[in-house]
## 1
Amino acid sequence: MTPEVTELAGVTADRARLDERELELIDRARHAGATWVQIAAALGLGSRQAAEQRRQRLAVVRRSRRHERDLGYSARIAAIRGAVSDLQRWIDTDRRWDARFGRATLVRKTAEAALDADPSPLYALATLLAVDLRQADGERLPAPVRAIAARLDDLLSTKP
């Protein structure tokens, strides 16, 4: 392999690190109260929509990398991440989610963290999600969310 090809491989790794750092900084800025317009200006983008789209692209790339890494683990890890992803999609479309039950906001934030977690923390966070959803049972959880909770319970079960 030529030195140039070796350096190209390094660029790919550098890009992944920079993408992770950019996503982290965008999220930290948003949590600290920065507007999308401010973030767009800091990134040299022309609009708030461009900044939001950039964040979405970075999040998709991160999830894709996580999926690739998950392939090196058991199929159960990919299935758990899939269930958490289904839960997150439901939460994202439910405008009343945070008012559904006492720990709904915690469930939303835990699901967000679990989506990007490495396998061991993913398993731990999914366990917490399952417990919180189980405790909310009967407290106005939509049927699809109850089905996801049951799926998580099955995936996390240690029964053969």
Note: The chain has a mean pLDDT of 89.
## 2
Amino acid sequence: MTREVATISTKENIINAAARMRELNVGSLVVVTKYEVEGIITTWDITSKCIAVGSNPAESLVFDYMTSPIHTGTTKMDVLDAARIMAERKITRLPIMDENKLIGIITFADIANALNQFTKDVAGSWKTE
């Protein structure tokens, strides 16, 4: 899980969202208000929902193009639980909540890294002498 979650306000425009993604080298931003997670905006949302339909990104708000509601996970789930939710929901990012507070995000890259490490750990334990 990545603990430093890139976020943005619902009131920001799409230009600012895209610039923040570029600055942070991420493909999504969790959309938050003062008290809660409202949604998620991805590069796909920006290109397919805003730019591709001819909307002006400087005049378009994140709120209007974000995906909402979003599915979230908890700190009590393991990697396989997260992967199962992501596969069932056909999503590539899963914000992780703890007592209604955003504490991280899991991506498919995180899952791939965890499975790779698991494979190395298991394969390493099968070595014969």
Note: The chain has one domain: 7-124.
## 3
Amino acid sequence: MKEFLHISLLFIGFIVVLFAAYYFTKFIGSKMSYSNIARHIKVLDRVFLGNDKSICIIQAGKRFFVIGITNHHIELISELNEAELVSISDDSSGSFSNIFEAYINRLGNKKKDKGQGMNRIH
């Protein structure tokens, strides 16, 4: 009976710690989300070029900038006019599903060609 009470208290304590951790992280997360809201600067787009290297288009007020970011350096590459900001259409031809489908089709065609070649020999 004493062991059951001890195990029950440990289990209840564990549940209390889990709830406390959940609500604490929720509270901290809500406070941190307000600190990341910028009223005057906005990152419009980011392209990762490699490990810790990227190019960003940022908007500061009504001005647009292209900046390069590395681990140790941030550099202004260019300033853009709003007319120069052209949305690049999403070309899905390079998506994984399209590449995979093309590969499967090629494999299927090779098998058909081999099968037809075998039929010709016989």
Note: The helical segments are 2-35, 96-121.
## 4
Amino acid sequence: MTAPRDDYIRCPLCGFEFARADTPCARGCPLSKSCNLISCPNCCYEFPPEPPVVSWWKRLLSRHEPPKPPRDLFSLPELEEGEHAELVSLNSEKVSRRNTLAIYGLVPGSRLVLLQKRPSFIVRVGETELALETDIAREIVVRRTRCAHAVDLTASGEATSKTT
């Protein structure tokens, strides 16, 4: 189920569009209960929300339909097995988790292939295959890509390289 258009926010720094629900205040902040800053999951830039009066005027005066959120971005569980993707961001609040995944090559810009979804998610990043739990897979935002290099087997069993 998709969120209503008003629940999407565009980061003023990087332009990334994301759901308002994905922006909790940083844990450990003494003002976290009263803080209303929004944190971009892509670049971690924090900014205040737009006042309701301003957004109401923008909607009133806009003559065109508001742009749809980018549907070229998906969480890892939305991919099909065998699909190739580029990692866009890791939406984990845990710095240690992001650092651990980075050690294995899961960093923004890396290319991966989803090999398996059940019983756990298995992805290939370069020559590394990783098994991920479902909650970790949900935190990985990817963009589908076409396979840049595939290997076909001929009738004789000889591997031939083919670029798509």
Note: Confidence is low (pLDDT under 50) at residues 150-164.
